[in-house]
Amino acid sequence: MKKLILASVLLGATATVTAGDTITTDSAAITQGIKEGTEVRMDGEVVQALGDERYLLRDTKGQFEIELDEDLTADRPLKAGTQLSFTGEVDHDDGRSVVDVKEVHSVKGSVTTNSPSATISN
């Protein structure tokens, strides 16, 4: 019984259900194996551009990978340090968990443009 209660508390700490079956979550829940196809809302800071529209992000619990179509950031690649808030779908790709970003809520920080920094909000 104690294990069941502890598991419930840990699950509640890493993911909360919101309207429309979107889960507000963090990197710990992603790396622990949220089911493929689950819609998630997350925040993170870009650590590194991995190429091919993929980025490594970090939050307070760790790091995770996203796939972000440049159309969602006005065709401007993101630089390290950029803060990103988004909704996406969990995809388990070649043994890795990747969040395929469907909607960007806000981008704050450096993007590759003629100006040193920019903010994009939806």
What does this entry look like structurally?
The protein has two helices and eight strands, in the order αββαββββββ. It has 122 residues and is mainly beta. The chain has one domain (2-121): Bacterial OB-fold (OB fold (Dihydrolipoamide Acetyltransferase, E2P), Beta Barrel). The longest helix has 13 residues, at 2-14. The radius of gyration is 15 Å and the shape is globular.
Radius of gyration (CA) equals 15 Å
Task: Enumerate the spans where pLDDT stays under 50 for 5 or more consecutive residues.
Answer: 1-14, 114-122
Number of helices: 2
Strand order of the largest sheet: 3-4-5-7-6
The main β sheet shows up as:
5 strands, mixed, barrel
Order of helices and strands: HEEHEEEEEE
Q: What is the number of strand segments?
A: 8
Structural shape: globular
Number of domains: 1
Provide a compact summary of the structure:
This protein has 122 residues and is mostly beta strands.
Key features of this structure:
single chain, 122 residues, mainly beta, OB fold (Dihydrolipoamide Acetyltransferase, E2P), five-stranded mixed β-barrel, 15% helix, disordered N terminus, disordered C terminus
Write the layout of secondary structure elements.
Elements: H1 2-14, E1 15-17, E2 23-25, H2 27-31, E3 39-51, E4 54-59, E5 62-67, E6 83-93, E7 96-109, E8 118-121
Parallel strand pairs: 2-3, 5-7
Antiparallel strand pairs: 1-2, 3-4, 3-6, 4-5, 6-7, 7-8
